[in-house]
Amino acid sequence: MKKIQTFIVGISIIAAIASCGNTPEKNNTPTEDLEAKKTMQGIWVDELEGDCVLRAKGDTIFYTDSLSEPVKFHIHTDTLYLESSHPSKYHITKLSDHVLRFVNSDGDEISLVKSDDKNLVSLFEKIKRSIDHINQGELIKRDTVLNAGEKRMHAYIQINPTTFKVYQQSVNDDGVTVDHAYFDNIIHIALYDGARKVINRDYHKKDFSAHVPKEYIDKCILSDIVIEKVTADEVTFVAILSTPDTYTSYHINIVVRIDGNVKMSV
To answer: What is the mean pLDDT of residues 144-154?
Structure first.
């Protein structure tokens, strides 16, 4: 009986040592304050100006600006976390049923009050905005007759909107970092010499990656392709890759020879 007891004690000691060696690491992620998130629900306006600033609904914050993307948010202790393309956080100095105060990215305290005006909900309905220097969400078709020496050729260009988003970050009037979302395009070009097809293909922005820095390709959209020059031997198209929220763009020449040979250059 004594031997059995000794054996059992030995097993217990080994098990205890093994369990110590396999102790899982502590999760240092702070627990989300669900009560604070519940308090955040609703529409918040600027305390002094009365301008509508944001709407918290569920786990998402919405903005009135039609370009600003909704963003997931969390509250941990006294900090508001926004999960944008580059996550940001803001120190909350006060949060109650009717008052929200936080420190923005400039170090200024923003003071908001909750509004019960249901008419403000309509401000968060996204209305399509026109953007002067880039093509957004519009199917564009162009059919052009070209005089190439003694030849009469037809060129077709079609801009096809996509659902692929390109994000640009900016800071809004309240000093909060927001994502502006823009949509890339796929552009089809075709060139015909009578019934003979010279070129007929789609272009994506990645097709120009050899002529544009990688970090620029990731942030730009293929905005347009236009006809630049026509000779008896070739037609030069120009692809325009633009960075939203800036006036920076790359212009890439697509030189199509009459024999169908295609080359690119900046």
So the answer is: 90
Return phi, psi of residue 129, to 5°: -110, 140
Distance CA 236, CA 230 (A): 6
How many other CB atoms are found less than 10 A from the CB of residue 109?
12
Query: Would you say residue 9 has pLDDT above 70?
Result: no
Alpha-carbon span 15 to 112, nearest angstrom: 57
Nearest to 207 by CA among 252, 259, 140: 252
- Of 71, 73, 102, 40, the C-alpha closest to 169 is 71
- Sign of the CA dihedral with 5 first, then 11, 12, and 13 last: positive
Give the pLDDT confidence of 210-223 residue by residue, as tens digits: 999 888 888 899 99
138, containing H or E segment = none
